[in-house]
Amino acid sequence: MACVVTAVFVTTGSAAAVITTTTSTSATSQGASGTSTSGAPNECPNKQSPPAAEDDAEQPAAGSAAPKPLPVPADPVGGDQLGKCGFVLPPDAATAPPSEVNASSWVLADLDTGAVLAAKDPHARQRPAALIKVLLAVVALNDLKPNTPVLITQEDVDAAKGYSAVGVPAGGKYTVTQLVEAMLLKPGNDVPNALARALGGVPKTLDLMNAAAQQMGALDTRVATPGGLDGPGMSTSAYDLAVIYRHAMQLPAFADAAAVKSVTLGGVYVHNTDSLLTSYTGAITGISSNTTDAHSTNLSSAGKNGHRLVTVLLRGETTKYPMYLQSSKLLDYGFALTAAGAHQVGTLVDQAPPVKPSVSATSSASTSTDAANVTNAADNSPMYQAFGNVGMPLTIVAGLGVLVVLAMYVRKRRARAARARRLAAQANNV
Fold first, then answer.
1. 3-state class of 356 per DSSP?
2. Helix locations, 260-357, DSSP H
3. How does pLDDT run across 163-174, given as a tens digit for each residue?
4. In terms of C-beta density within 10 A (0-12 exposed, 13-18 middle, 19 or more buried), how is residue 65 classed?
5. What radius of gyration, in Å, describes the C-alpha atoms of the chain?
6. Model pTM?
7. Residue closest to 115 by CA, chosen among 336, 331, 310
C-alpha cells in the first residue's frame, strides 16, 4: 500500500487575491451522482461506513472481529442541511462550486466564526490518511509537556518502512514540540509512532485521540492508526476534520507549530513541500496525503480580507487536478461567498452536542413514562392511600364474617332436614 504525503504551514500578514473564481454557471445547475441539482440527497451510501476497502490493510487481526460502524447521530452535527449527501450551498450563491474539485466529500468553512459556507456530502464517512495527524498533534500538545525529550527508536524507524517518513534517525532525542513541528511539515509514520510511544503506546494513544474527537463533536471519527495509515474501522468525515483543525488552531502551541516553515532534526532538514505555498497568497496550512483506501485527501487554509477559511477534501482524484489546486479553487469560491455576504449552511461545533435519542426510542420512553405517571397518580391519591391503610383489613374481616354466617346457615338447614326424617320414621312405626 503506497502512502505519499506533502504538507505546508506558513503565516502571512494581509493577503491579496491570487486566483479568480473561474466558475460562472448557476449554483443550481451543477448536479452530482445520487443527488438532485439542488444538492438534496437521493441516498447516502457512506452515511455509516467508508467505501469498501481496496486492499487488506483494514482486515482485523486473527481472532478479532471487524469494528462495527459508529452510531449515526439522530440530528446531523452542525445543522440539518449538513445531513445532505450532495451539494449543500447557500440559496444566495451566485455560482456553483468550481468544476475542478472532484473530491467525493468536502467542506468549506470560516476558521474564525465556524460558519460552514458550502459543502458536499459533509458527513460522509471516509478515510483521512495523514490529515488525522492534526488530531494526534492536539493530543500530544495537550497531554505532554512541550519540552519533554523523546528518544527515537528503531521501532519508530521501522514503522515507516514502505511508507512516507520524516526521516529522523534512531538514537536521536527531540522535544515534543520539535516532533510535532516536523510531523506537520512533512507527515510521515516514524514521528507519529514516536509520539504515540511517549503518550503511553499506540493503543492508549488511539483511545486518547478517539476521546478527543468525541469531545470536539467529531462523531464520524474513529482512529485506527496514529499516523493515518488505513486500519480496521478507520473513519472520519470532511466536517469532522474541519472541526478538529479549527479546534487545533485555537491552541497557541499548535498555531505556533503550524507557523514553522522548516526545522532541522539531527541533520535532517524538514521543510514545506505542498505546492499551496508557492501558488496561493495568504496560505496558512496545506496538507496533502493519500493511501490506497483513502485515495487523495487535502486540508488547506488561507486568509484574505479579514477572513480565514479552511477546506477539507476527502477521496479526491489527482489524475487531472492536484489536490492543492482543487483546494485553491475552493478557497477562491469561499472568499467570493464571504465577499457577497452569502448565508452559511451550517456551523462547526465547539463541542459534542447533547445526545438525542431516536424518534422511536423517544416515543417508547414517552409512552412508558405516561403509563407510569398514571399508575403513580392513582397510587398516591388520598382515596387509594386510605384504602391501603384501613380499607384492606376491613375487607378481610368482612369476608371472614360472611363465611361464618354462611357456615351457620348450612348447619341449621342440615339439622332441620335430619329432624324431619326422624319424625317421619316414628309415624310409620305407629
1. coil
2. 276-279, 323-340
3. 989 999 999 999
4. exposed
5. 35
6. 0.77
7. 310
